[in-house]
Design goal:
This protein is an alpha+beta fold and 356 residues long. The chain contains 14 helices and 5 strands. The chain has 3 domains: 96 residues, no CATH class; 114 residues, Alpha-Beta Plaits; 92 residues, Arc Repressor Mutant, subunit A (Orthogonal Bundle), CATH 1.10.10. Strands 2-3-1-4-5 form a 5-stranded mixed β-sheet, sandwiched between helices. Helix 2 crosses helix 4. The chain is elongated, with a radius of gyration of 33 Å. InterPro entries: CdaR-like_regulators (IPR051448), CdaR_GGDEF (IPR041522), PucR_C-HTH_dom (IPR025736), PucR_C-HTH_sf (IPR042070).
Length: 356
């Protein structure tokens, strides 16, 4: 699209100022400087380019100077000083207007992101605002969230580097990258899972091994907040369950919300199956951790002992102690499912740190 044509009035009374300066050698008055700033602001608001406007000033200087200036070096110095003053004041007004516009755009973008991720706005109005930021909320979208060792803002190097990598790889695809509560957030069309996979790879590296969670694609304006909540829940689940995978997919973790849907029933299972472990020397946590690692290792004693830095004999003693206290044998398939479900429930409910 062609740039808007700059009218001659954009320079105001610049030629008159040069003429008077050439005749008297005076400096620009306070009123003239303020007028130049106002002209700069109006030019910025009209969408003109500062480079072109400076060029117009210089062209007007070349045109006006031969008619007004003498050959005196003092006069030439006065005119050049006036040109510097006039252009500097004009550029100052232009840049102030641009900074104000940028701040307004940033505020509007942040308000939109907050409304989008919290679902606080009217969905129809939200969909209309989304087009301004490159999203078509009538379609399915998915959200990925990356948590690093520190909190990030949009101006920090980490999110800027990740955004640059995404733009270099995917160009103008409908992607929105932002930060929220110190985490990196990427919103992408649900039909393009490669975008979030690449974001996860870049974010994991940029955050020095931070963990990334990816929500499922969901349709419509409310789909973004739904997917965002799933990603946050996956990160929280990873913390409670000790999951250390670099990338977590909400679709792979659906069993955990199912297990805790009836919280009272799960708490009752944990108390009845694992409560007796609290009688052990050192409390329940060491034996609970042993069970967790044992199940993660596929119930293979040698691998479990290696992960726990124990001898197989010491591990066997722990498993026997668990059997004595709970009445359930971890190596017995009949008991294993109940024990493993109880262990998962304990992690989800943060037991024994919290009373059930």
């Amino acid at each position: 699209m062609a740039e808007p044509e700059i009218p001659a009035e954009a320079l105001g009374d610049y030629a008159r100022i040069l003429s008077e300066v050439a005749s008297t050698g005076r400096r620009l008055t306070r009123e003239e400087l303020e007028s130049r700033r106002l002209l700069g602001r109006e030019a910025a608001e009209a969408g003109h380019q500062l480079r072109a406007l400076v060029g117009m000033h210089l062209a007007e200087t070349r045109t006006a100077w031969p008619r007004t200036a003498t050959a005196s070096a003092t006069t030439a110095d006065s005119v050049l000083a006036a040109v510097e003053q006039a252009v500097d004041a004009f550029a100052e007004g232009f840049e102030r207007a641009q900074r104000l516009t940028v701040r307004r755009e940033e505020a509007a973008r942040r308000e939109f992101i907050d409304d989008l991720l919290y679902g606080r706005s009217d969905l129809g109005r939200l969909a209309e605002r989304a087009t301004r930021f490159g999203l078509r909320l009538s379609r399915a979208h998915a959200v990925a969230v990356a948590a690093g060792p520190e909190a990030y803002t949009e101006t920090d190097p980490v999110p800027r580097n990740v955004e640059a990598a995404l733009l270099a790889r995917f160009g103008s695809r409908k992607i929105l990258l932002t930060t929220k509560d110190g985490r990196l957030v990427c919103i992408a069309p649900g039909s393009q899972p490669d975008v979030l996979r690449y974001f996860a790879k870049q974010a994991h590296a940029a955050t020095d091994g931070g963990q990334v969670a990816v929500g499922r694609p969901h349709q419509g304006p409310g789909g973004v907040v739904h997917s965002y909540d799933e990603a946050l829940d996956a990160l929280d689940l990873a913390r409670r369950m000790g999951l250390d995978e670099p990338v977590l997919y909400a679709s792979d973790l659906l069993v955990y919300p199912v297990l805790t849907r009836d919280r009272e029933a799960m708490a009752d299972l944990v108390r009845s199956e694992l409560g007796p472990l609290q009688k052990a020397r050192g409390g329940a946590e060491p034996l609970l951790n042993t069970l967790s690692v044992y199940f993660d290792a596929g119930c293979v004693a040698a691998e479990t002992a290696r992960r726990l830095a124990l001898s197989v004999r010491a591990l066997t003693y722990r498993l026997e102690r668990i059997r004595q206290l709970t009445g359930s044998d971890p190596s017995d398939p009949v008991h294993r499912y109940t024990l493993q479900t109880a262990v998962i429930g304990a992690r989800l409910l943060d037991w024994p740190a919290k009373e059930l």
